[in-house]
Amino acid sequence: MNEELSIILETTSKILNKHVDHKLRQNIDNDNSDLINLWGEIKQLGLPKIAVKDKFNGSGLPLSTTLPIIKLSNNIGAPIPLSETILSNYILSESDINPPSGIITYAIDVKNLKIIGNEISGELISVPYLNLTDKVVVIAEIEKTKKVILIKNSGEDKELKKNFLSEPRYNLKLNKCKILDIKPINLRINFKHLGAIVRSAQMIGSMEKILDLCIDYCSQRKQFGRALSKFQAIQHQISEMAVELSASSAALSTITNSDDFYKNKKDIAILKIRAGAAAGKVIAISHQVHGAIGFTQEYELAYFTRNLNSWRNDFGNESYWEDVLGKDFLENNNQNLWEYLT
Amino acid sequence: MSKFNFPYIKETNDLSNLRKEVRNFITKSLNHKDFEPSADAWVFSASPEFSKKLGSMGWLGMSFPKKYGGNERTALERYVVTEELLASGAPVAAHWIADRQSGSQILRYGNEEQKKSIIPKITAGECFFAIGMSEPDSGSDLASVKTKATKIENGWKLEGRKIWSTGAHIANYMIVLVRTSPASENNRHEGLSQFLVDLSLPNVSVKGIPDMTGQRHFNETLFDNVILSEDALLGVEGKGWSQVVGELALERSGPERFLSHFTLLESFINEFKNILIKSGSKLIGKLIAELQTLRRMSFSIASMLQNGESPETQAAFVKELGNKFEKTMVETLREFSNIIPLYEWPSQLQNLFEDATLRIPSNSLRGGTTEIMKGIIARQLGLR
């Protein structure tokens, strides 16, 4: 890890730990003022434009360096659209659009999108954090080319989606919404692939936190005269979580250590499959060992497990990527499996 | 969680070239019909001739010092060679234990005479080892072993029995874990020692135990007051526990924990590729993801070993995940027999599948059970 990155990580950790507690997460629906203070410091540190080109006043760091930062943010459980803003700004910058300042989000699932003149109509599905921003990067195929479309939402057709996510998502109906900028997409990596990597990093950060919560809770909680952690049945379940987590982390570091990870569909698929599968087990086990308290809003476990539920389905779930990976190998006629693996 | 990091290690061009070299050798051996690929070959398929050939290629005792006939290559190079051999189902059982753990144990703890006389034979593929850990009353609970060595004039007297020793019937030596003094009240790991025992000595008898598949690899070895010379003590008297723990990291972390039945998977895919393209890509993708993650983790451990670290806990991760993967793999293939009934599979593939099905329960027993692996991990997590 280079020095610059470790300084950024240290500072990010300080800022987040100062502001983030479970009350902040619970209050975001009612009162955004604490969150806005937090975002102010994040912005001052330059995180929103960390992967944006110099010419747009960004830090110009390689995208791979953002992954440990995003992972850290979700390990602390910061209820802020950090990954959404970093990704949106990155895609704008790469496609030669100057990213606006402030929070920004993206939409990749769209319905009936139509552009007439300088206006766009249609539906955007499951857009994260629309409560904190009105700026959206829409990624869609328009007249057979993939486009990046920057819009400012006027706000009237926003519908909060009730799903299992801890973080807010919205469906948005656009009716002749003004386009701020539109360009053909220019990314070295498919946005779905990029999203899969980022969501995996977020899952891994969260799973590390969940493992810590389980260890702490089971070491303190006594039943039948001894700490839960002294029961072998509990120990083995938590060990299984650790195994799942370490396998996912190994898959992530394959990506973060590769200079050309954006080319590597195989390793991206492996990461999303591995992290998604781990998330399923971690959700089940962490709730099992916590008992009823883990099933409440008051305790923080559910904040993390609800996010896992959502992220493992974002940008392709395990089945999707298993199919991609299987076909990548099977449709290549020249290689047997061992050659493919090595 | 930093304890459980598996740092990323890139496979260099040199390693890839070595891989190709081994692969060419295997292809030639297959063309000459030197061996028939088999399942679980590192346990079941012993060929002293093949081991000797590997020795002459410089692929045994690869990381051992040159002055003892070794090749002074890295643990990563050894990793690549063992992977290639496992993936082809080559008959590596004869030398497996000597090359994997016993040689290293002697280099670490043996005296000069032992190193000079035994290590060159291991690297030549002419000296085989068996493991002497379990006993009839001590399986997972290794600290409870009762076999004991008593000091006598000019040496030791060994009495007791060891069980489940794979390959003891063809092995020249066994490293035996024994009690040399009683356990102390608060530390049952004290008072254990390791001995290097020549299995051709008088009063050593090796008896085979057919396993459930009917094959012979298991043995029970009786030591009926065997007289050992003074230098049969391996390492330090009373430090047997910490020595054996280090040995187990070598035993548990390697690619044999997830490539034991790779030949089955490869043959299955080659046979049914056209059907799998249409309806099995998801199944295959899932297996590839897990297998590649395991390779990534095990390779990382090889580099830890190279750096002189003691990755016992990481080894438990690989073993646990590897055992699970192999069970899932066989189960996945079994479900596929709904599409093409087993009796229509080519007979060689049927045999591999049936062998794997029968043998798979042993994979999470040998080298430490699932329960022991999870216990090791739990200890590292601070739960016990």
Note down, in words, how this protein is organized.
With 342 residues, chain A is α+β, with helices and mostly antiparallel strands. Chain A contains eleven helices and nine strands. Chain A folds into two domains: 182 residues, Orthogonal Bundle (Butyryl-Coa Dehydrogenase, subunit A, domain 1), CATH 1.10.540.10; 151 residues, Butyryl-CoA Dehydrogenase, subunit A, domain 3 (Up-down Bundle). Chain B is α+β, with helices and mostly antiparallel strands. Chain B contains twelve helices and eight strands. The longest helix of chain B has 26 residues. The two termini of chain B are 16 Å apart. The interface between A and B is large, with 50 and 51 residues.
Pairing-aware structural class of the strands and helices of chain B? alpha+beta
Strand content of chain B: 5-15%
Which sequence of strands runs across the widest sheet of chain B? 1-4-5-8
Query: Would you identify the regions of chain B where 5 or more consecutive residues have pLDDT less than 50?
Result: none
Instruction: Assign the CATH architecture of the largest domain in chain A.
Output: Orthogonal Bundle
CATH class of the largest domain in chain B: Mainly Alpha
CATH architecture of the largest domain in chain B: Up-down Bundle
Average pLDDT of chain B, rounded to a whole number, is 95
Beta percentage of chain A is: 15-25%
**In CATH's first tier, which class of the largest domain in chain A applies?**
Mainly Alpha
In CATH terms, the superfamily of the largest domain in chain B is: Butyryl-CoA Dehydrogenase, subunit A, domain 3
Share of helical residues of chain B: 40-55%
Give the number of DSSP strands of chain A. Answer: 9
Radius of gyration of chain B: 21 Å
| SSE succession of chain B | HHHHHHEEEEEEEEHHHHHH
Shape of chain B: globular
Helix content bin of chain A:
40-55%
- Oligomer state of the chains in this structure: heterodimer
Largest β-sheet summary of chain A: 7 strands, mixed
Give the termini distance of chain A in whole angstroms.
27 Å
Termini separation of chain B:
16 Å
